[in-house]
Write a structure and sequence with these properties.
By secondary structure, the chain is α/β, with parallel strands linked by helices. 26% of the residues lie in helices and 26% in strands. The chain binds iron/sulfur cluster and magnesium ion (MG). Residues 248-249, 284, 286-287, 290, 292-294, 297, 302, 315-317 line the site of iron/sulfur cluster. Residues 2-255 form the ABC transporter domain.
């Protein structure tokens, strides 16, 4: 469905490169919700842009490739590689960017945001018919039709986020990428957004990739997930495995940092800060913060170790 083969991406800045994504390798399967977790600044959003083919200077891909396997109207298989994926936007892959307020045009009514975004990609040329289709879709998602007449600032943050999801899924794409879709929303509204994403996925049987720094979000809706640290994907496994049998020390610390209901003991945060991506350390990038770091960790980069076909982690302790 969507495959990343050893993808590296970097920002070309005046004084060198910021290596935001380093040899990331995983795939998103059909009919699943895949989560990408990690602290802020670990490269999650950049990775999503790479998957969406949203490569604009100063961002560039320096290694590997991204593939999307889809099919055309007649059912013939089609493969899009990075550099071509943008040709499949909205219909095959769509993107819900972070920050529902600033990605919308503040002076356009929601109806026109739909028209502007979709008209180029939609076969329906009659505006009235298209408007009816949009209305039907909003109804399907239990969104009030009045929102079409509203300007973004007249709607709540949660409603704007729902509209972005509606927009991104209107043409029934195979893959939907969502960047921090619940951040900055209160818990009740968050829950509603997650439920909406799950319902859409269930109905369309497509794949959703959700980026969130919040492990609770992943626990609630993802089927499989990847943990990123300092630009690298350090563990990938079914979500249940990540929570019940994490293998990388960083994943273990992320899980231990989650507050649990009924447990009032203070939770351990993860001491220290991630390394600079301009000059990442040799060896394991987590070594400076890892309670198990050994000499080898500071000189040799750990390779992927497979616990099963579905579960890998990169740590010298696993060899
Ligand atoms: Fe810790 Fe070493 Fe494993 Fe890195 S490779 S996570 S430093 S034990
Ligand atoms: Mg981000």
């Amino acid at each position: 469905m969507l495959k990343l083969n050893d993808v590296s991406a970097q920002y070309n800045i005046l004084t060198g490169y910021v290596k935001a994504v380093d040899k990331v390798d995983f795939e998103v399967k059909k009919n699943e919700i895949f989560g990408i977790a990690g602290e802020s600044g670990c490269g999650k959003s950049t990775l999503l842009k790479v998957m969406y083919d949203l490569i604009q200077y100063p961002l560039e891909i320096s290694n590997g490739n991204v593939e999307i396997h889809s099919s055309d109207k007649s059912g013939t298989p089609v493969i899009y590689n990075n550099g071509e994926i943008h040709k499949s936007w909205w219909k095959v892959i769509s993107y819900v960017p972070q920050g529902a307020m600033h990605v919308m045009n503040p002076v356009a009514r929601i109806k026109n945001q739909f028209f502007d975004a979709i008209s180029k990609y939609h076969d329906i040329t009659d505006k009235k018919v298209l408007q009816q289709e949009i209305l039907n879709y909003l109804k399907e998602l239990e969104l009030p039709p009045e929102v079409l007449k509203a300007f973004p600032h007249q709607l709540s943050g949660g409603m704007r986020q729902r509209i972005l999801i509606a927009l991104a899924t209107f043409l029934k794409p195979d893959i939907v990428l969502a960047d921090e879709p619940t951040t900055a929303l209160d818990v009740v509204v968050q829950r509603g957004i997650l439920t909406m994403l799950m319902q859409v996925q269930k109905k369309m049987k497509n794949s959703i990739v959700i980026v969130s720094h919040d492990m609770g979000v992943h626990y609630q809706i993802t089927n499989r997930m990847g943990i990123m640290y300092a630009g690298q994907m350090i563990e990938v496994a079914p979500t249940e495995e990540i929570f019940n049998n994490p293998r990388h020390p960083y994943t273990k610390m992320l899980i231990n940092a989650i507050p649990k209901i009924g447990d009032n003991s203070s939770r351990e945060g993860i001491p220290g800060t991630p390394p600079s991506l301009k000059n990442p350390p040799v060896g394991c990038r987590f070594a400076a913060r890892c309670p198990h770091a050994m000499d080898i960790c500071r000189t040799v980069e750990p390779e992927r170790v497979y616990m099963s076909e579905e579960h890998y982690a990169s740590c010298h302790l696993l060899n």
